[in-house]
Amino acid sequence: MSELNETPKQLSIKEAIQQELIRCKQDPVYFCKKYYMIQHPTKGRVHFNLYPFQESVLRLFLKNKFSIVNKSRQLGISTLSSAYALWLMLFHTDKNVLCIATKTETAKNMVTKVKFGYDSLPSWMKIKSVENNKLSIRLANGSQMKAVSAAGDSARSEAVSLLLIDEAAFIDNIEEVFVSAQQTLATGGGCIAMSTPYGTGNWFHRTWVKAETGDNSFLPIRLPWDVHPERNQSWRDQQDVDLGPRMAAQECDCDFTTSGDTAIDPTILNWYLIQAKEPVERRGLDGNLWIFERPDYARMYAVVADCARGDGKDYSAFHVFDIENNSQVAEYKGQIGTRDFGHFLVGIASEYNNALLVIENANVGWDVVQTAIERGYPNIYYSPRQDAALTNVDMYLNKFDSGQGMVPGFSTTMRTRPLVIGKMISYLHEKSVTINSKRTLEELRTFIWKHGKAQAQDGYNDDLVMALGICMFLRDTSLKYKQTGDQLTIASLENFGKSTMSVGPGFYQGGSYKGIGGSNGVHDQWNMDMGNGQMLDLTWLI
Predict the structure, then answer these.
(1) Do 427 and 326 form a contact (C-beta atoms < 8 A)?
(2) How many CB atoms lie within 10 A of CB 229?
(3) Which of 62, 84, 151, 432 has the fewest CB atoms in 10 Å of its CB?
(4) How far is residue 157's CA from residue 11's CA, in Å, rounded to a whole number?
């Protein structure tokens, strides 16, 4: 009976502290709510009273070594990560936390939050700091946190227990940073990569997509605007007003497709993606020739090709377009030798009604052009040596007819490249071109503005994009070809003969040929110099 009347044993201060420390170590949510202080913009120093979604995210961090957070703006996830980092450092020895961001100042903000939380702790919970400056804090138990910018070797020097990547979508060289960090994380470390979206194709987007499909170690955590209990539809509508619909979708909806600096409006690309279709046939040894429409012998076509540089890092590509309907009917993208590519183009162009064959002639493109000419293909596009003629169809045709200052193929220069891209963007935004291929549309998703220039995002290619741009740019000229008919085909062959370029066998060379009427010294456009003293009769083309 006396035992029932006993009162609970009064804990000593030392015992109470010990129990509290054990509870904090076991439950980071409890630690954050009771002991972690934050600097509120209007209220000053306050407890970090976690919302339910923040509690859930923190427990996910605890259970998963690798997490990727696709988040809306101002959800307190950076603050949550800093609280998690401090908890890890306090209650575990020799933990090394590294925070990486686009700029040192941005990464320093995370350390600043940790230091503020540390300074606000009760004295009995603090572990003496042996280093405390603007970019780092190190505790006597061997745990530390450092802030660095995204330099290539920033995560390579030492073992990392927790890597925090803030605004990961905006770090240009994040792939290089993460590869470096992986070696240091191999000992059991983890990573939290967080960001609002910023376009598709970058490391953050690729990692997120793989995380969703289970193809990497990252746990995908998506946090759109409405996870915050104090936000409603009125708040979201106001973001459209304040930021604009496109930026609001990026900042609030976790929407990759409407974010970033894509050269083509993502909403336009989404519209095209709905219209895209699967090819009716896949041909070629590599299966990379996609046929969407077979040749209609009443139609006029153009085959426009972008040739690989020859370094093995990009692809040769071409489109086949119905010129009048401005519709993509076939497409190829693959790695193929220049000579084989030339033969391939001649075969496809011949199949599509002797289509106008436009070959980008930079670098190894000359070899592709020469192959087509050696084959005697009758309808090859010529460029004026002076770019000005490309901006005026009639000026171009006058030069074409005269044969003066013309070179075979399309010449992409500092002047013509922005014109090509501008024409393509115009056609796409007006929705006046039919794109059937999802492969082309995916390239367009990673075709971005960078340093004022439209180009492929790092790690991606723009071969199909550039071929599409050239096709759109030359469409008016192609239509003019149709208006003049067979005379321009003959003129094309004639230009081969008038060329004064010394580019080797296969190109039409100037000289004294046997004329059609049998008189010597008269230029004969129906003979091609084969480079071995022999002439190839091309009258069969008529």
Answers:
(1) yes
(2) 9
(3) 432
(4) 46
Q: What is the mean pLDDT of residues 95-112?
A: 87
The tokens for 351 are: 């199949």
Residue 336 shares a structural domain with residue 398: yes
Q: Is 209 strand, coil or helix?
A: helix
Query: For residue 446, is it within any domain?
Result: yes
CA 202, CA 515: separation in Å to the nearest integer?
60
**Tens digit of pLDDT for each residue in 509-522?**
222 222 223 333 33
> What is the pLDDT at residue 64?
93
Q: What is the CATH number of the domain that holds 107?
A: 3.40.50.300
Length of the chain: 542
Amino acid, single-letter form, for residue 525: Q
The answer to whether residue 8 is domain-embedded is: no
Q: How deeply is 401 buried, as exposed, middle or buried, from its count of CB atoms within 10 A (0-12, 13-18, 19+)?
A: middle
Lowest mean pLDDT among 194-203, 290-299, 314-323: 194-203
CA distance 16 to 22: 10
Q: Supply φ then ψ for residue 261, to 5 degrees.
A: -110, 45
CB 70 within 8 A of CB 195: yes
Residues 212 and 63 in one domain: yes
For the chain, give percent helix, strand, coil, nearest 5.
40, 20, 40
pLDDT given at position 511: 29
Helix, coil or strand: residue 439: helix
Q: Do 322 and 418 reside in the same domain of the chain?
A: yes
**How confident is the model at residue 277, as a pLDDT?**
93
Mind listing the pLDDT tens digit for each residue in 116-125?
999 999 999 9
Amino acid, res. 513: Y
Res. 541: pLDDT tops 50 = no
The verdict on residue 413 lying in a domain is yes
* Residue 519 domain-assigned (yes or no): no
Nearest to 355 by CA among 322, 393, 403: 322
Q: Pick the last residue of a domain from 228, 253, 278.
A: 253
Q: What's the structural domain count of the chain?
A: 2
Could you write out the DSSP letters of every residue in 495-509? Answer: HHHH------TTS--
Q: What is the pLDDT of residue 393?
A: 52
Give residue 30's pLDDT band: very low, low, confident or very high (50, 70, 90). very high
What type of residue sits at position 370?
Answer: Q
Alpha-carbon distance of 385 to 340, in angstroms, equals 27
Contact 206, 195 (CB under 8 A): no
pLDDT at 429: 92
Q: State the Cα–Cα distance between residues 66 and 162, nearest whole angstrom.
A: 9
One-letter amino acid of 359: I
Question: Would you call 19 exposed, middle or buried from its count of C-beta atoms within 10 A (0-12, 13-18, 19+)?
Answer: exposed
Residues 6+ apart with CB under 8 A from 28: 58, 62, 83, 84, 87
What domain range includes position 235?
23-253
